[in-house]
UniProtKB/TrEMBL annotation:
One of its GO terms (molecular function) is ATP binding. One of its GO terms (biological process) is translation. Allows the formation of correctly charged Asn-tRNA(Asn) or Gln-tRNA(Gln) through the transamidation of misacylated Asp-tRNA(Asn) or Glu-tRNA(Gln) in organisms which lack either or both of asparaginyl-tRNA or glutaminyl-tRNA synthetases. The reaction takes place in the presence of glutamine and ATP through an activated phospho-Asp-tRNA(Asn) or phospho-Glu-tRNA(Gln). NCBIfam families: gatB, PRK05477.1-2, PRK05477.1-4, PRK05477.1-5. It catalyses: L-glutamyl-tRNA(Gln) + L-glutamine + ATP + H2O = L-glutaminyl-tRNA(Gln) + L-glutamate + ADP + phosphate + H(+); L-aspartyl-tRNA(Asn) + L-glutamine + ATP + H2O = L-asparaginyl-tRNA(Asn) + L-glutamate + ADP + phosphate + 2 H(+). This is Aspartyl/glutamyl-tRNA(Asn/Gln) amidotransferase subunit B. PANTHER family: GLUTAMYL-TRNA GLN AMIDOTRANSFERASE SUBUNIT B MITOCHONDRIAL AND PROKARYOTIC PET112-RELATED (PTHR11659). It comes from Gracilimonas sediminicola. It holds the Pfam family GatB_N. Signal peptide: none annotated. Heterotrimer of A, B and C subunits. Keywords: ATP-binding, Ligase, Nucleotide-binding, Protein biosynthesis.
């Protein structure tokens, strides 16, 4: 595909994101939603669609979706109803899914995304409640598809964007922002690999300048942010190439093949009438009162965008550092706890952005799994600020703290890393360094002041790294200048 051909067209992209909620029980049945249970052990007659069973709404399903709606500036409907979405599939034993259709609980919101070159606002058409289906497993038996119904009935929210996205990179940024918001709200863990955050993409292309949309395809089976980006990129080029060759795009659902790095047809795309929606007869409407809205609004945390600005204004943090630290609610909480104990925002950000993040990345863990408390990290930094240890010693002690639950100062003494700030101990070392390097002394006195680093380095080596480098530098400068 030539660049020229691509420049003739623009993509129109809308994302449908399903977020699996962190409720303790299913959407309409009192059974656990814990991940990892033995197949088909977390089910009830209601999950299986047995006659005579009646659903009951999980209150947290309603509260969590309202949180998401308020966080994304949606209008919240005073009254909304559930609907039955009818289709037949092996992992849907009831033959229908309880969802919402023409009366979603949240609508007309937006999400702001940031890319390197620009910022953009992406509209939200709706956020609605529904239950999950089960899971078909195709790779454990060479002859049969297996079905695990543990997931059936798990509460979901579906977040449907307006077709405002134009590039795969915008889609990636939007999906990242949705994940960040649901994690900040603590309503979803955002794990795409475990299926708790899933994304379908509707993609079409049109000649630049034309308002009418092209024929869209729906992309499924994308289990990571990067695969969402790759699948959309491939589909854009596939559609453009098809049109350029005189063909027509067919409306269909396509799967992303991670092995071949391409999309392939799955089925013709369903329309709303294919699902024969009708109001759920066994569930009453959801009524949201002003009191309920006010109560949930009070529970909302400070979201990442607001927190980032506060860190920049209150702590003098650079935008890049603020973006990194506030990307995770829990990392930002950890940082603020270090600041609280230490009283020095800059020193706190230095240790978190360097040593703490290094370990998190090396061990592929979340800050909640990190072994060193914010209090112990701040105590370590205080040793450096009090000139009891130097930078090299601080890193050595930090690494030791990963394995030993001891106080930083105790480790510093045990590792013989306490810095010497006794002039009586350091002066003989400094005198010896000066006496042993007459040529460098002469060059220093002739104006080569940068040689001070050489003398300090020699003194640190002679003291086996225990000398206070600031005091050493002051002693050497005084002797040489005199």
């Amino acid at each position: 595909m030539s660049t020229i051909a691509h420049e003739k067209y623009e993509a129109v992209i809308g994302l449908e994101v399903h977020a699996q909620l962190l409720t303790q029980s299913k959407a309409f049945a009192p059974v656990t939603t814990e991940y990892g249970g033995a197949p088909n052990t977390q089910v009830t007659p209601l999950c299986l669609g047995h006659p005579g069973t009646l659903p009951v709404v999980n209150e947290n399903l309603v509260r969590y979706i309202i949180k998401m709606g308020l966080a994304t500036k949606c209008d919240v409907a005073e009254k909304s109803i559930f609907a039955r979405k009818n289709y037949f599939y092996p992992d849907l034993p009831k033959g229908y899914q309880i969802s919402q259709y023409d009366t979603p609980i949240c609508f007309d919101g937006f999400v702001d995304i940031s890319l390197e070159e620009y910022d953009k606002r992406i509209g939200l058409t709706r956020i609605h409640m529904e239950e999950d289906a089960g899971k078909s497993i195709h790779d454990q038996d060479p002859y049969n598809t297996l079905v695990d119904l543990n997931r059936a009935g798990t509460p979901l929210i579906e977040i449907v964007s307006e077709p405002d996205l134009r590039t795969p990179q915008e889609a990636y940024a939007y999906l990242s922002k949705i994940k960040q918001i649901v994690q900040y709200l603590e309503i979803c863990d955002g794990n795409m690999e475990e299926g708790s955050l899933r994304c379908d993409a509707n993609v079409s292309v049109r000649p630049r300048g034309r308002e009418k949309f092209g024929t869209r395809t729906e992309l499924k089976n994308m289990n990571s942010f990067r695969n969402v980006e790759r699948a959309i990129e491939y589909e854009i080029y596939r559609q453009i190439e098809l049109i350029e060759d005189g063909g027509e795009v067919v409306q269909q659902t396509r799967l992303w093949d991670t092995a071949k790095m391409q999309t392939r047809p799955m089925r013709s795309k369903e329309e709303a009438h294919d699902y024969r929606y009708f109001p759920e007869p066994d569930l009453p409407p959801i009524i949201v009162t002003d009191e309920m809205l006010d109560e949930i609004r009070e529970e909302l945390p400070e979201l990442a965008d607001v927190r980032r600005k506060r860190f920049m204004e209150d702590f003098g943090m650079s935008e890049d550092d603020a973006v990194t630290i506030t990307d995770s609610r829990y990392l930002a909480d950890y940082y603020e706890e270090v600041v609280e104990h230490l009283g020095n925002p800059k020193a706190a950000s230095n240790i978190v952005l360097s040593e703490v993040l290094r370990v998190l990345n090396e061990q592929s863990i979340d800050i909640r799994e990190f072994s060193i408390s914010a209090k112990r990290v701040s105590d370590l930094v205080k040793l450096k600020e009090d000139d009891k240890i130097n930078s090299s010693a601080m890193q050595q002690i930090f690494n030791a703290m990963l394995d030993e639950d001891k106080e930083p100062e105790a480790l510093a003494k045990e590792m013989n890393l306490i810095q010497v700030s006794d002039s009586g101990f350091l002066e003989p070392i400094v005198d010896e360094i000066i006496d042993n390097n007459p040529d460098e002394v002469a060059r220093y006195k002739d104006g080569k002041k940068q040689l001070i680093g050489f003398f300090v380095g020699q003194a640190m080596k002679a003291s086996r790294g225990k000398a206070n480098p600031k005091l050493v530098k002051d002693l050497i400068s005084k002797k040489l200048d005199d």
